[in-house]
User: Fold these one by one.
Assistant:
Number 1:
Amino acid sequence: MTFKELVKTVFLLEIFKGMALTLRTMFRRPVTIQYPTQKKPVMPGFRGLHALTRDPPQTGDARCVGCGLCAAICPSRCIHIYTADSEEHKKIVERYEIDVLRCLFCGLCVEACPYAAILLTEHYEYSGYTREEFYMTKEKLLKNYDLYMGAEKSMAYFSKFWHPLRGDFGTPKKQVVFKGRKEE
Ligand code: SF4
Ligand code: SF4
């Protein structure tokens, strides 16, 4: 044992240093919060549970037109869309399903959708005992919209995080467009 270590041991210096640190921090505001009674607001753009947008916002059906772009871009292949033709030859989205347990919460489906029809809400407190509880059907996704998003919040969300460059769904100037393959 060196002389310095001996002095430290005899005079209990480490203990006093520890007690001084405890005293210094004792009267500071705690950084921990009492979850779940206290909660911090989520960050803007937080990617929580999915929802399908209603059109019109409060009363309408899903805005989704069943184009399938979200399913095509989804890296987890966890979006399943089933469409049918109505008698007026209009496309109907019969089923729109997301297997949330496979989702990466990357947000690509939101960015790919040309109609602002799908979004990620701020809701993250969900749990369940079966896989089925995390298999989101169209009805569940619309309910998520009513519960966790709603008209005003979704407008703010899309204005910040939805990326098509124009609101009229035309082709923006800078957009890369596929113009067919050059003849060899
Ligand atoms: S957030 Fe990503 S992984 Fe999840 S459904 Fe959308 S595209 Fe797929
Ligand atoms: S990209 Fe949008 S409109 Fe197309 S199927 Fe997905 S949610 Fe529906």
Note: Strands lie at 50-52, 54-55, 61-62, 79-85, 91-99, 118-120, 135-136.
Number 2:
Amino acid sequence: MASRPDYSQILGVGKNACDEEIKKAYRKLARQYHPDRNPGDEKAEARFKEISAAYDTLGDPEKRKQYDRGAGPFGGAGPANPFGGGGGGFDTSGFGDILSDLFGRATGGSGGGRGPTREQPGRDVETEVRLSFDQAIEGAQVPLQVATSQPCPTCRGTGAKPGTAPKVCPVCHGRGIESEGQGLFSISQPCSLCHGQGTVIEDPCPTCHGSGAVRTLKKYRVNIPAGVRDGSRVRLAGKGEPGRNSGQPGDLYVITRVTESPIFRRRGDNVEVEVPLTIPEAIRGAEVEVPTLGGRKKLRVPPGTKHGTVQRLRGEGPPRLSPGSRPPRGDIHYRFVIDVPASLSEEQSEAVDKLSEVMNGNPRARLFT
Ligand SMILES: [Zn+2]
Ligand SMILES: [Zn+2]
């Protein structure tokens, strides 16, 4: 035990300092030398380790007794030595219980995410909106009502009856966590009484019954961009549930439900239309009128067009959603289908007989060669 570090001196307290003084000294120094406050400063980090080790011993009555007897962590083989047992990196996560209130809010640092002052982001909210096919293609502004929770107007979100205030939780003393064991390396869990809030409400607010939040219907007019599909998600930043303790609000996601068109079928970035052709049109070719998303167009059907042939009209399909897409719109695919009549007039029947006579080759012959 050649050089036992002088922990009292490191923390700047007297040999007989009480627990409260030690804790106060440690908190002050930890705040000053915390790696989050001194990024890249090796001296500060070394000093932080030193004061942490000092507090680890002096802050724990058992270890302090040992230390005072001369069997400090460098002398004894106690498992308490934070730097014993190899291991390179220095992990501050074990200090969460004491550092959370130091660093939880002020720096957003790694001091642990617990404690009553910790910001809590609001939850995201999802809702659906019905659109016609045309609205989905052209974009639309649609009214929307969303049920979200808002801070209670009676108690302003505290949950306490007006005129009263939430009390600091008597079990965890406001830290929101209960620790098993003492000192820095203890196991912590959310407080069983206040469930991590750090406060308890003795007189609950009559409006929200202590929850601090009320359900309200929020009305929005949502701009649905042109080109959405069934199941597209439109994000409205910050329109979700409010956060707690100045946390960011969540987002509102509007899922589009698009009514199918009887004519246009969505196929990825494109739409498809079935265009029936009579048998003579398919054989001889024709100029046919077809619907587009903005009106009508004439299409040239070449002679000998087979059933199922697709002709593309480029760049006249639905707008593409991602900004700056090239080309900005998809295509319209016209799929030609030969319209075979289910029943024939006498005249048509004779014509088909005639056709059978003159087109008497067997197109299936090649299947059997
Ligand atoms: Zn508590
Ligand atoms: Zn209330």
Note: The CA atoms of residues 144 and 220 lie 5 Å apart.
Number 3:
Amino acid sequence: MRNTFLVCAIAVLALGLGNAGPAAAQAKPGVERLYILNCGEGVAGDQRDMSPGVNEGKSMDFVDNCYLIKHAQGWFLWDTGLADAIAAMPEGQRPADPRMTHWKRSKTLASQLEQLGLKPADIKFVAVSHSHPDHIGNVTMFPQSTLLVQKAEYDWPAPLGPRFKPEQPVNKLEGDHDVFGDGSIVILSTPGHTPGHQSLLVKLPKTGALLLSGDAVHFKENWDNRRVPSNNDSKDKSVASMQRMADVMAKEHAQLWINHDKALRDTQKLSPQFYE
Ligand SMILES: [Zn+2]
């Protein structure tokens, strides 16, 4: 009787120690939370370049998002938005061609990081969907972060805006990339809009799987009808990438979050609120 009690007591003690051991003290693996940062708003003068043959001559409202993700192994930023300098322009940035988008910024990226208690140096990885100015506008704010970009995009002699600095640490990708090796943040190669365009699959603990589009699609109606903007780099690759995204969404039961879709963002929580 006495021995049985002792054995039980030791077993309970061992269990208790097991629960409080180093494994339990560690942070949960994978993604903890995702913030949508307001990285701009704009009005395209004419929808014709976005969806040829549809709503030509009509203007269209757009938004521009950055997505900040807290992973157990570090902070990850997806896209850097329009340059923060645009926030100081009273009328925003007017395009040379009135058919293009007139962008404004109501808040800077820097101020939104600061609100969360973060400095640019706290961001371990900065990945960009592609190198158009409304996605890489603040990439130089993160000289210590490792840039994750497709080699095809890095080497592309794009005609627009600021590009990458040679001193920036960079991992030039050639295809898909599992950022932390646990499947929770996976870059997917989705060329077409630009030669090295990429999208992002994120697995959140409560919200579930999300596919962040980049500019593989600009708004839901174009997605539903598989429409390709006239100024994309390759129409065939654009269509193939949308099909690939649809396949991934079906397999992963993922929601599609379209970066520039204003109607979608109007329904979403913006930083400092977050998704788990
Ligand atoms: Zn673009």
Note: Residues 54 and 143 are 42 Å apart (CA to CA).
Number 4:
Amino acid sequence: MLIESIVRKTLGLKRHRVKEVKEEDGSLSVHLVPDGRFKVICSVCESKGPGYDTLRERQWKHVPLWGIPVVLVYAPRRVHCARCGIKVESIPGTKGKSPLSVPLSIVLASWAKEVAWQVVGRFFGFHWNTVRKAVKDVVDYGLRHREIGNVLLIGIDEISRRKGHVYHTQVYDLISKRLLCSGKDRTSETLETFCDEMGEEHCEQIEAVCCDMWAPYVDVIKARLPNAILVFDKFHIVRHLMDAVDKVRREEARELKAENPEVLKKTRYVWLKNPWNLTDKQKVRLSYLEKLNLKINRAYLLKEAFRRFWDYTYPAWAKKYLDQWFWWATHSRLQPMWEFAWMIRRHQNDILNYFKVRIDNGAVEGLNNKAKSISHRAFGYIVPQKPSTLLSITEWGNFQCHN
Ligand SMILES: [Zn+2]
């Protein structure tokens, strides 16, 4: 196959052809010319029109071949468009003023999802700033082509970075499992921005929202998503419960420090893990500890009893069980469990909504970790989750970034 054919195929040339490929200063310069048999296409509205004039030659960086830089060279024409007036023509494989070809942007941004920008740059022989531009081009494209019409269930989650010093709020579409919006900080602002961008009509369409019992969100949800049922996320609730159990363990370990410092050492996961995930050694340890009439054992039993709550089908039965559990927890004489029980009671209605709309943020957990590793490298740009191929820029889209 000739280089001409590769270029023609990867750019999808129809109304242009490759005039020649020259080796200039160690790179391959691909000179494109218009195919005179066709009319000129307006880059704004994609309609055909007569040519107006020809502009100066421009260059675009293209995907390197066998490590050899490739440059596209073309003198764009202007079109006399009936709708838009005099505009630059649509040039295959390029977008707007970007000095990078679209396939190159996709290749670089795809790699930028996996490794650091500097590494991508070194590997392809570009400055890291070129990689940054590629990511920006692709993100901007995604923003413009974001489909938000059919978002019905959303999940809101926070990811922490730099050991919890920086938080990002993420809004996910729970049906298609894609990231819709990402903003710095754990404030209501991100959610407000999301609602502004969705528009009132789409906001009204949203049927349910899943999130943590975090007050600023709750207010925004009630104000801006009038038809959404609020469901407190199961995984967040369980995390709060685990924190309470662990607090009981730490307090008791402190109390026992003088008389029996060894007894609770390294038992954190014995109490927190699901019983069926314990190792044999942990099982032996647990059955020994269970006989000691420890406070942490009471907390452990409460934690295990809470598990049954999620198994109910009908809200009324779930509520009955929750009332029962509340009584146990508030009579356990364990302060952290008492606090957790009251937190649950305060948010009870929205917790019980889980039995009306069974959604949780479990499915987005994986996306969260991915977003974490990406945003760590991408200075706040969130790159879409979908893999892409060289030619299909339509794969990209449906995500958002704020800096
Ligand atoms: Zn036009």
Note: Residues 234-255 form the longest helix (22 residues).
